[in-house]
C-alpha cells in the first residue's frame, strides 16, 4: 500500500484567523506540523493542501510539498481535491493545528488498514478519554460515542452520553481530528452534499454517518494541543518550551 499524509490548511479559520501562520518557537504552526509529520517516517509523501498563498509559500520555503486547492468547507473535501491525481491507497488527514501529533497514534491508524485484509474498513480516526468536567463540557472538544466493536455512533460538541443516571459512571471520549481514508472512500465522500447534522454541529465526519458509512475509532493516550483559540497557542508554546528545556 502507498500511504501518504495530507495536511489541510485554511488561513481564515473562524475562531482564530491566521492561526497556522502564528509563530511557535522559531517556526510557524503549519511548518512545525508539516516537519513533525515528515519526521515520523511513516509516509511515502507528505503534502499540505491549502487555498492560501501565504501557507503555500511557507511550505515551499522550507522545502516541503504543497498543493493549491479551491475553497472548501471541510478539510476532507480539500484533501479529496488535492489527492484526486495522486497515486496512493491510504490517505492520512493530519490537522494543521495539531503540531505535536506523535508517531504511535499515526502508526495505530495505519495498522487498521494493514490488518483489514478483507477491506471492510474505509475510514478510521482517533479518540482519547476525557476525565475533567471542564473538558467534557467544552464545545471546542468534539465528543464521540461508539458501539461495542469500536465504530462511531455519533459525534457532538454537546456532552454525550448525557449523565441522566448518576449511579452509572459514563466514559467520555474526545475525537482527535486525524482521519485515515481509503482513497476511493475519500473521493466518494467529497461527492456527497453536506448533511443537516454536519452543518448544525460543524463536524465533517457526521456526513459519513448520515450516509450510512462506518468509522472505526482507535483509542489513544496521546495528549497534544489542538490550536483552536489564542489560548491554545499559548499552551502549545509552553509545551514546546518545556520540551526544549528537557
Largest sheet descriptor: 7 strands, mixed
Strand line-up across the major sheet: 5-4-1-6-10-7-11
Distance between the termini: 37 Å
Number of helical regions: 9
Q: What amount of the residues lies in strands?
A: 15-25%
> What proportion of the residues is helical, as a percent range?
25-40%
The coarse overall form would be globular
Assembly level: single chain
Number of strands: 11
Q: Uncertain regions: pLDDT < 50 for 5+ in a row?
A: none
Task: Note down, in words, how this protein is organized.
- The chain has 246 residues and is an alpha/beta fold.
- The chain is built from 9 helices and 11 strands.
- The chain has helices spanning 29-39, 53-61, 75-83, 103-115, 133-137, 183-191, 196-201, 206-210, 230-245; strands spanning 3-9, 23-24, 27-28, 45-50, 66-68, 90-93, 123-130, 143-146, 152-156, 172-182, 216-219.
- The strands form 3 sheets. It has a 7-stranded mixed beta sheet, sandwiched between helices.
- Strand 2 (23-24) and strand 3 form a beta hairpin.
What would you say about this model in short?
InterPro entries: Cytidylyl_trans, KdsB, Nucleotide-diphossugar_trans. With 246 residues, this protein is an alpha/beta fold. The protein has helices at residues 29-39, 53-61, 75-83, 103-115, 133-137, 183-191, 196-201, 206-210, 230-245, and strands spanning 3-9, 23-24, 27-28, 45-50, 66-68, 90-93, 123-130, 143-146, 152-156, 172-182, 216-219.
Amino acid at each position: 500500500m502507498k500511504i501518504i499524509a495530507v495536511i489541510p490548511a485554511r488561513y481564515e479559520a473562524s475562531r482564530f484567523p491566521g492561526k497556522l501562520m502564528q509563530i511557535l518557537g522559531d517556526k510557524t504552526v503549519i511548518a512545525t506540523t508539516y516537519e513533525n509529520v515528515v519526521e515520523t517516517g511513516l509516509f511515502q509523501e507528505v503534502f499540505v493542501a491549502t487555498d492560501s498563498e501565504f501557507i503555500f509559500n511557507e511550505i515551499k520555503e522550507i522545502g516541503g510539498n504543497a498543493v493549491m486547492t479551491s475553497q472548501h468547507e471541510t478539510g476532507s473535501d480539500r484533501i479529496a481535491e488535492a489527492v484526486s491525481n495522486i497515486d496512493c491507497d491510504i490517505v492520512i488527514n493530519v490537522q494543521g493545528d495539531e503540531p505535536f501529533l506523535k508517531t504511535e497514534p499515526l502508526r495505530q491508524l495505519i495498522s487498521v488498514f494493514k490488518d483489514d485484509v478483507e477491506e471492510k474498513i474505509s475510514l478510521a480516526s482517533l479518540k482519547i478519554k476525557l476525565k475533567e468536567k471542564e473538558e467534557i463540557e467544552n464545545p471546542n472538544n468534539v465528543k464521540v460515542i461508539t458501539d461495542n466493536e469500536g465504530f462511531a455512533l455519533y459525534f457532538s460538541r454537546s456532552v454525550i452520553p448525557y449523565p441522566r443516571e448518576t449511579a452509572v459512571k459514563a466514559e467520555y471520549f474526545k475525537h482527535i481530528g486525524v482521519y485515515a481514508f481509503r482513497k476511493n472512500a475519500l473521493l466518494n465522500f467529497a461527492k456527497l452534499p453536506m448533511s443537516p447534522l454536519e452543518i448544525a454541529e460543524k463536524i465533517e465526519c457526521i456526513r459519513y454517518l448520515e450516509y450510512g458509512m462506518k468509522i472505526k475509532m482507535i483509542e489513544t493516550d496521546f495528549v497534544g494541543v489542538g490550536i483552536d483559540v489564542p489560548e491554545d497557542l499559548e499552551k502549545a508554546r509552553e509545551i514546546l518550551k518545556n520540551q526544549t528545556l528537557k
